[in-house]
Amino acid sequence: MQFELADHQGDLLDAVSTLLDRFAGPARCRQLGGASPRYDSELEEALGSAGFLDIASDPDGGPLDATLVGEAVAAAAGVLSYGASALVAPGIGVSGLTGPVAMTTASHRGPVRFAADARTLLVHEGERVRVVDVDPDRFDRVPSRFGYPFGDVTEIPDGGTVLDAGSGVRMLAWWRLALAVEAVGTMIAALALTVDHTRERKQFGRAIGSFQAVQHRLAELKVLSEGARWLVLETAWRGAPDDAAAIALTHTLSAARRVPADTHQLTGALGFASEYDLHLWTMRLPALSIEAGWLNRSVGTAR
Amino acid sequence: MEFGWSEEDTAFRKELRAFIEAELDERWTGPVRHLGSPENVANAKDFNRKLAERGWLTPHWPVEYGGHAATPWQHIILGEELWSVGEPRGPQYMNVNWIGPSILAHGSDEQRRELLPPIARGEVVWCQGFSEPDAGSDLASLRTSARLDGDEYVVSGQKSWTSYASVADYCYLLVRTDQAAPRHKGISVLLVPTDTEGFVISEVPSMVGEHAFHDLFFDEMRVPASTLLGPENEGWAVVRGALSYERVGAPRYARALVVLADALRWVHDHGVELSEPVHERVDQARAACEAARMLAYRVIDQRASNLPPSATSNLARAAMVHAERLVGNLVFEMLGADALRHGSLADESFRKSLAAGIAAGSYEMQLNLVASQLLGLPKV
Lengths: 303, 380
Known about the structure:
By secondary structure, chain A is α+β, with helices and mostly antiparallel strands. Chain A has helices at residues 7-23, 26-31, 41-49, 63-75, 82-91, 167-200, 212-237, 242-267, 278-282, 284-299, and strands at residues 101-105, 110-113, 120-125, 128-133, 140-142, 150-153, 161-162, 202-203, 206-207. In chain A, strand 8 (202-203) and strand 9 (206-207) form a beta hairpin.
């Protein structure tokens, strides 16, 4: 067991960080529409050309490396279907996808992340997965302020390729992991911004981060989010076994449910301002939590 | 970064499980998981001797002091496996986890030779004289004094809430040796036999369990100056190192997972249908235990890499407290009215979970240290 990054992982994260500095980040997200963003095809193109979308199946990489990149993409408020493309598709043995990938279940109807832009729809149908090519604009764009572009999946298109009988279970595990990766990167960014704010913001003649009531809330978020992060990384390293993925997502969501209220509370009115970055991350967390709910209804929770 | 166990560690866990299966007295395998209450000390000593014969009581210690020079990973494997069967080492886990390592790090050659082998053989019990009536979370305000008189220290004062004192052979005693120094200076550690004349032990009845707590009284107790551990007046640094071991030395998440599994078995055996919200909370509690496990592993990884103790141990400890509290509260809802029976799984786990946030430094102190050292927030 080794918690420090291996040399190649350090190099990988340096490279991805350089790319994200240029193509992603809160300013870019705001340019795309902030909490109601357009899909970031340029970022997707840049990550794809650099090989970052294929790391999970790269013999020199693997799911853990893809997870480390996914966490960084989420922390940089990237607007793309990284988890579906770089973790779930390789996890169910689907390769060669280009463009946005959306994921849904056979029974879900309503808003689906990235469906309005998707070229591919991965449909969880019990034991199996159906991979459907879709035309862009197949699904109407859903007006929403929950951090991602959504498409209204009112019906599941016919056709496509049906995968083997074990693919459904594998998709759920990788989907859970992908959701957890996205949530971990998102909440760690929200927490870091809030910690910075409480160090700078002075009231009653002192930094509000020096008050114990404030410190304990932040420390508890740190305990929860760090625990979630290591569970997620371990699960990725183990290749997303069902039970581990469910546990990692469960703990991640326990943490994620506290983050919007606590970080906004500690940031005060400033946190609501469109020009302030916090909402770019906090508004995404409920969307991830809702999506996780479809998975629970499909299979029952981890037990 | 990778999260695999070495072949050696996997083999160790397997062998250890077989040993536990074969050797564990049935008194430890009932529905109630005891944390080695003093009445079980004799059982614990038996079990420890068997562990020690295989070098498994102190596997991570140097060979010359009765260990195997094993990695810290085998130490946490031992902790996990033994806590999940009710910690049959009893109070021994303190000796093995931090008192021994602390003597190893700061003791004189003579102290090491005299004090470590009996610990490695599982023959002795130690208690820790830390808290006082006016020094709990604020440990550095301790007042028990020790004044050097010739080649003896003369100790006066009171210690509180000392676990296992009535069955202990030695006490790891924190005293103030310089009254004039700033409060973090002037503290020293004395390694005191509990049969020293003037070492007075008084039991404090409590809701945690019989004989769990004691007051210690010292009125001009005389101990040889050679009982001093580390440099005089620099005990705070010595004890801080010891405490960082203490925080993850007891993998309470392993015990909490077993309590949860026992409660689920009870629910199944009694044909009880849990509601969906309770099922969700079972998942959340289990996930919180697993998160605590990963945070504890992170501390072990740092130790295995010979990095100095850091606030990651506070993070791990806070996560363990959080997980154990979730389990402690949940078991009531799983067992319903049967939880109220004396000695029920819920009765036991609830009391233990209440104590989790106090032992080894209060939960609030852990959060303070996470805030200042990991988040970089200003001092309160």
